Amino acid sequence: MLLNDERHELCAIGRRLADTGLVTGASGNISVRSGDLVAVTPSGMALGRMEPADCPVVTLSAQLVEGEKAPSSETPMHLALYAETPAAAIVHTHSTYGVVVATTMSELPPIHYNTLLLGGVVKVAEYATYGTPELAENVRTAMAGGKRAALMANHGGVTIGRDLDEAFENARLLEWLCGVYVRAKTIGEPRILTGGELADVVERGLAPPEFPRV
């Protein structure tokens, strides 16, 4: 089976996403890249119930090379990000607080310095129908400049990483930041960190880990 280890990892991360509530039912999708091949979650299947053989393998040009199930409808977005970034894994969620922010804001304000671990202020990509080239392009634009995360208007969030574990942890961090912001709004206007304050944190060494050079 092509990308055997990677397909097992997809299933493990799918269960973690379901267990932590970052996805429900068949929402969300995950992929991992190995060379010129990408293992991706299947369309319409609950991430917590996948088996390795359920996960199709495609080329970077979206050609199906192994698997009986159709690739996720968001495969174009995943492939666009692999073309644009050095990511080796991508996680897309429909997490509650992420969707709340994505339906109300144009960006997630930097309310905590850990925003820097996602590459800076998280942008909200303009709305487009799921699975379309337009959505893929909007997300690519929102992730430009070395970002590790983006939100999608009225949809959800997407994070990238050097591996699936890192992409998953970035998804958890994105949801935590969104949750802090939403909860803070219920008791007052959140204090937003300034560019200078964020720069001071960068000087102290906080930054996302570098992607390996290829």
From TrEMBL:
GO terms for molecular function: aldehyde-lyase activity; metal ion binding. InterPro entries: Aldolase_class_II_sugar_metab, Aldolase_II/adducin_N, Aldolase_II/adducin_N_sf. This is Class II aldolase/adducin family protein. It comes from Actinomadura darangshiensis. Pfam families: Aldolase_II. One of its GO terms (cellular component) is cytosol. The keyword Transferase does not apply. Keywords: Lyase, Metal-binding. Residues 8-182 form the Class II aldolase/adducin N-terminal domain. One of its GO terms (biological process) is pentose catabolic process. Gene3D superfamilies: Class II aldolase/adducin N-terminal domain. The keyword Acyltransferase does not apply.
